[in-house]
Every structure is written in structure tokens, then in C-alpha cells.
Amino acid sequence: MASSLPFWFNKRFSTEDQCRASIRELRWPEGFRCPGCGSERARINARGLFRCQVCQKQTSELSGTALTGVRVPLVTWFSVLWVMSETPSGISASALAKLPDPDDDEQNLVSYKTAWLLLHKIRGVMQQTSLEPSYGRIEVSVETLDVVELGQFGRQGKKAIQVLVVVKERADGTTGWAYLRQVPDRGPETLRRCLMQALGGATGEEIWSNPGSEFEWLGEAGYRHRIATKMGLLSVNRVLEEVRVWQVRTHWGEMSEKHVGAYLDEFAFRFNHQCRGSSSKDIFEDLVDRVITGKPRTLQEVIRGEA
User: Fold this and answer.
1) Looking at the domain assignment, is residue 17 inside a domain?
2) In the chain, how many domains are there?
3) Is 7 a domain residue?
4) Is the pLDDT of residue 287 over 80?
5) Which of 73, 42, 72 is nearest to 56 (CA)?
6) By the 8 A CB rule, do 1 and 76 touch?
């Protein structure tokens, strides 16, 4: 892995001091400000913490970020972020745990448990955002996706869940944005709430759904509702097929219902970056910004699948 790290990465993230300096620059571009009293007067003490000269509060670069809670070197953190950025389909915890340590080829970068925790913490900051209104064609549908059903003794088999799929097309007919979210039921109030969250509440969009679907209320809500006939919802079908392929190729089908929301967030994050033509560096910078501005989650919160 070390040979694949680009020059700009090594220049900023190859040592612990470089990582800390980069985090400080990103968190406090105009200089450190105490989160307790707002003072700019602070010194770095022997423990490497900012100590406010006014209220004496001690602050770490990592406090209040998604980087907290995993005891691995920052170099490892950023190496994993780069792996997640440069691999188009992402990586499973099993595959990540097999990567060699850049400083010691005889050791692995992280253990399986650490790999699992790091990846889920990263997926936690890939949360999807609503669509900015742009008045174009949107396809919506509720589709079925098979996930792993877990029981008292581990994997118990497959379980079908319902997923709201929202896809935005560009003027040339290509896909420009996708949103996927598990829904507990197909009731009109549930779908209305989830779809409004995806669309950001903007009206005037042209929205297509299948005949006899649960979206007949869209016209009354101010949208231009259209019924898809003949060819059906091509963009929805394409996105759903890519989800199923990604599920098998990257995660070997091992997507549990408890964490399916995080996996759907990761897929949409990657898919939307791909639609924008983002480079690996673009994705990495987005992830770093999200990790630094994201809220911390405890190990138990991650295990329970809490956002």
C-alpha cells in the first residue's frame, strides 16, 4: 500500500505530527479558539493538548470529531481513509484487515475488529444529503433488497427489506444523483416523510413513479407527478442493480439489517461522487472534512447501528 500513496498524501499524512498539524489546520483555519470560553489564547502542553490560558480547559485536536474512540495512530486513520477513497467499490473489513502495514510488511495494517470499527465510523459520516432543487426528472420507487438476518447465533439467513430509491436524471438523460433509504413500511405517511427528506421539501419537480404505486399524493403536494409506462423506471432499475452487484462483490452479501442504513449511505456517497466525476483526491478530501466535522460515536453506538 505504501507504494500507492501519492506524493501529496505523504507530504501531509505520513507522520503523527503531520496528521495533527493537518487536523488543526482544517478544524481551526483562523487559529485555535477554546470551545469552552472562546478565547484564542492557548498553549500546547506536554501531553499535546491545547490548554486555554483563560479558562484552563484542555482540548485535543480529535475531541468532538469522528476520529475519537479508536485507539490507532492517526497515520493509520488517514491511510484507511485513503484506501476508502481510491477503491471505487470500497473495501470490506476482512479485506482491510489483510492489508500490510506500510512500515512493516510482516504485520497487517489493523486487526479485523479494528477494521470493522474504522469502516463503520467512516460510513457514519457518509450520510446522504437532500437533493438541491433543479427542476428535472426524478424517479422514485420502493424496492426490495435482501440483507443478512442475524440471530442469537450469528447469521440466520436472508431477509427482504423495503428501500426507498430516488434517482435524479440530468438533462441529457444520464443519472446525476441517487438516494437510498430503508423504510419500515410502505404506508403513505412513512413514504411522504422519507421522500420529503430526500427532496429537501422543494416543489415543482417532475417525479415519475410506477403505475398504482404509493406516490399518488405527489400531485397534491405540488409536484408534477408522472406515471412511468412501457420502459418503466430505467434509472431506478440501474441503481438497484448496481447496489446488488456492489453488495456481492465488495461485501460478499454480508450486509446486516442492523447496519444496512450505513451501507446504503456508503453506496450513495460513492455513486454520487462517481456521477460528479470526482477523483480519488476529491473523495478523500470530502471524507476527511466529514470525519473532522462529524460527531463522535461510541463503540456501543456503532455496534447498535445508531447514526
Assistant:
1) no
2) 1
3) no
4) yes
5) 42
6) no
Q: CATH number, domain at 203? A: 3.30.420.10
Give the sign of the dihedral formed by CA 199, CA 204, CA 205, CA 211. positive
pLDDT at residue 223, as a whole number: 87
Q: For the whole model, what pTM was predicted?
A: 0.90
Half-sphere exposure (Cβ direction) of 169: Cα atoms closer than 13 Å: 18
Domain assignment present for residue 246? The answer is: yes
- Using DSSP's 3-state secondary structure scheme, residue 279 falls into coil
Backbone angles phi, psi at 277, to 5 degrees: 75, 30
In the predicted structure, residue 24 carries a pLDDT above the cut 70: yes
Please give the residue range of the domain that contains residue 256: 137-276
Question: What are the DSSP calls for 196-250, one per residue?
Answer: HHHHTT----EEEE-TT-S-GGGTTTT-EEEE--TT--HHHHHHHHHHHHHHHHT
Each residue's pLDDT tens digit, 152-171: 555 667 889 999 999 998 87
Summarised one tens digit per residue, pLDDT across range 238-277 is 999 999 999 999 988 778 888 999 999 999 999 999 999 9
Count of CB atoms within 10 A of residue 104's CB? 9
Cα-Cα-Cα-Cα dihedral of 200, 205, 211, 216, to 10°?
A: 60
Q: Is residue 264 part of a domain?
A: yes
pLDDT surpasses 80 at 103: no
